[in-house]
Amino acid sequence: MTDKDMIEALYREMYKAMVEKDTATLNRVHADNFVLTHMTGMHQSKQEYIKAIAGGTLNYYSAEHEQMDIKVDGNHATLTGRSRVNAAVFGGGRHTWRLQLYFQLSKRDGHWLFTNAKASTY
């Protein structure tokens, strides 16, 4: 598998884990220093983000992936993923979002990890 194939698989695995509230997988695919910047500008650490998914603050029901733009430079990469995500977040109603996530990734011991993400719509 190429690095791009591995990163695409990781993105799909992450979304599956979000829907299933699979905290073990979410812990594995995100680096310990991972930070998510939400559309509102709010920052969440890896621990806060996973706790919000497990606790129901962030509820994901499905994701249809439309586009993945992946650029690899040695042990670093970026991924801009566009997906239609059905979710209910922060107490709001269930809605389908055109969610774009811009990720930075690092390859450590042969495995890619998400190190940073910034959310927006498209």
Please estimate the helix content. Answer: 25-40%
Structural class, from secondary structure content? alpha+beta
> Strand order within the widest sheet?
2-1-6-5-4-3
Overall average pLDDT: 97
Distance between the termini: 29 Å
Q: What general form does the structure show?
A: globular
As a percent range, the share of strand residues is over 45%
Task: Describe the largest sheet.
Answer: 6 strands, mixed
Total number of strands: 6
Count of helical regions: 3
Low-confidence stretches: none
Work out the radius of gyration.
13 Å
Q: What sequence of helices (H) and strands (E) makes up the elements?
A: HHEEHEEEE
Structural features, described:
The longest helix has 18 residues, at 3-20. Helix 1 (3-20) packs antiparallel against helix 2 (23-29). Helix content is 29%, strand content 54%. It is an alpha+beta fold and 122 residues long. The termini are far apart. The model has no long low-confidence stretch (mean pLDDT 97). It has a 6-stranded mixed beta sheet. It has 3 helices and 6 strands; from the N terminus they run ααββαββββ. Strand 4 (76-89) and strand 5 form a beta hairpin. The radius of gyration is 13 Å and the shape is globular.
